[in-house]
UniProtKB/TrEMBL annotation:
Residues 74-93 are annotated as: Disordered. GO terms for molecular function: DNA binding. It holds the Pfam family GerE. Transmembrane segments: none annotated. It comes from the Bacteria. Keywords: DNA-binding, Phosphoprotein, Transcription, Transcription regulation. PROSITE patterns: HTH_LUXR_1, HTH_LUXR_2, RESPONSE_REGULATORY. Residues 173-238 form the HTH luxR-type domain. This is Response regulator transcription factor. CDD domains: LuxR_C_like (cd06170), REC_NarL-like (cd17535). InterPro entries: CheY-like_superfamily, NreC/VraR/RcsB-like_REC, Sig_transdc_resp-reg_C-effctor, Sig_transdc_resp-reg_receiver, Tscrpt_reg_LuxR_C, WalR-like. Residues 3-147 form the Response regulatory domain.
């Protein structure tokens, strides 16, 4: 069961999203907040899997609320990891997906697809960005995608992300992200192409679990919460050149 908190300053919007999501048997709306301050408190109390977070809210906007929520969860994770050896041990296990089991992921909801919102939201740690005028059928699917550990950007938002990086330097940097192995860089490029773990496994003739392990290590090394942040890091580093065949 995917547990959801909805944060929006409009009661009708919250009620509408809750009704849409509660109609799905695998999704449970456990709380609603009318502003960012209330949302931060609810997340600390309820520890949901997903927060649907409006960008523009009184008291504390969605981006700042996202920073506070994820910063608090990061501090908690640090306290639970008693030694560097324990952290390294966790990465060396076969199933590294356990690293993200207790993470609350944020999907930003907005009527705007303005660049500043997109990049501020991703850098704050948001795992998804969905426009409020998206078809209702996309809402539940967005929740499932992000709950599974994938990143999600609305198509128009994805276009803006690519356009943003296309406006920058167009030089590929094969030595970018030196902490990554050659295989990890190869997999990161495929992630940036939008391939799923299953598709990457088929492309590289390796097991899906091996791909999951590599992706978990990539996220750890890049200090990225999910694939969306890892892809941004790949573009910013110059590993991936917008418009090039990746």
């Amino acid at each position: 069961m995917i547990r959801i908190v909805i944060a929006d300053d409009q009661a009708m919007v919250r009620a509408g999203f809750a009704a849409l999501l509660d109609a799905h048997p695998d999704i449970d709306v456990v709380g609603q907040a009318q502003d960012g301050v209330e949302c931060v408190g609810l997340v600390a109390e309820l520890k949901p899997d997903i927060v649907l977070m409006d960008v523009r809210m009184p008291e504390l906007d969605g981006i700042e609320a996202t920073r506070e929520i994820l910063s608090a969860r990061s501090r908690q994770a640090v306290r639970q990891t008693t030694t560097p050896q324990a952290s390294a041990s966790a990465l060396s296990t076969q199933d590294t997906s356990a690293i993200d089991e207790d993470v609350t992921r944020i999907i930003m909801l907005t009527t705007f697809d303005i660049d500043d919102y997109v990049f501020d939201a991703i850098r704050a740690g948001a795992s998804g960005f969905l426009l409020k005028d998206a078809p209702p059928s996309e809402l539940a699917e967005a929740v499932r995608v992000v709950a599974s550990g994938e990143g999600l950007l609305a198509p128009s938002v994805t276009r803006r992300v690519i356009e943003h990086f296309a406006a920058g330097p167009q030089t590929s940097n094969a030595a970018a992200l030196p902490d990554l192995t050659d295989r990890e860089r190869e997999i990161l490029v495929l992630v940036a192409r939008g391939e799923t773990n299953t598709e990457i496994a088929a492309s590289l003739f390796i097991a899906v679990q091996t791909v999951k392990t590599h992706v978990s290590r990539i996220l750890y090394k890049l200090d990225a919460r999910d694939r969306a942040q890892a892809v941004i890091a790949a573009y910013e580093s110059g590993l991936i050149v917008p418009g090039a065949q990746v």
